Amino acid sequence: MRLAVAGVLLLSASLLGGCARYWYQEGTSFTQCRRDLASCHAEAVRYSDVERTSGLGGYENRFVKECMRTKGYDLVGEKALPVRVKRESSPVFGIPGVAGTID
């Protein structure tokens, strides 16, 4: 079962690879972007009832988007990213990854 799900996800990712989005802020390092995203997720959990649900939902995702934008990040498509930035896609389909300069 897990193998089938992994196969479908891999196929979807390869077909929609050009649609990937990343949190990016010019001049910000990849490591800092990851830290800021983790901080926004942790803050979202403080305001939600994640223990009662199966994970982050609509409210938490909106909270993270607002938090990252407040920190100066934009959601940028794969093709709009500069060539020389490190990028990491999210393991969850539809959730933005992170991108930034090499540390």
Secondary-structure map:
Blueprint: H1 2-15, E1 21-24, H2 30-46, H3 58-70, E2 74-77, E3 86-88, E4 97-100
Parallel strand pairs: 1-4
Antiparallel strand pairs: 1-2, 3-4
Helix pairs in contact: 2-3
Structure notes:
- There is one protein chain.
- The chain is α+β, with helices and mostly antiparallel strands.
- It has one domain (20-100).
- Helix content is 43%, strand content 15%.
- It is built from 3 helices and 4 strands.
- It has helices spanning 2-15, 30-46, 58-70; strands at 21-24, 74-77, 86-88, 97-100.
- A 4-stranded mixed beta sheet has the order 2-1-4-3, covered by helices on one side.
- Helix 2 (30-46) packs across helix 3.
- The chain is globular and about 40 Å long.
- The chain starts with a helix and ends with a strand.
- Residues 5-11 and 13-17 have low confidence and may be disordered.
Instruction: Determine the mean pLDDT.
Output: 82
Helix content: 40-55%
Shape: globular
What portion of the residues fall into strands of 2 or more residues? Answer: 5-15%
Q: Please state the structural category.
A: alpha+beta
| Radius of gyration computed on alpha carbons | 15 Å
How many domains make up the 3D coordinates?
Answer: 1
Summarize the structure.
The chain has one domain (20-100).
Keywords:
103 residues, alpha+beta, 43% helix, 3 helices, 4-stranded mixed sheet
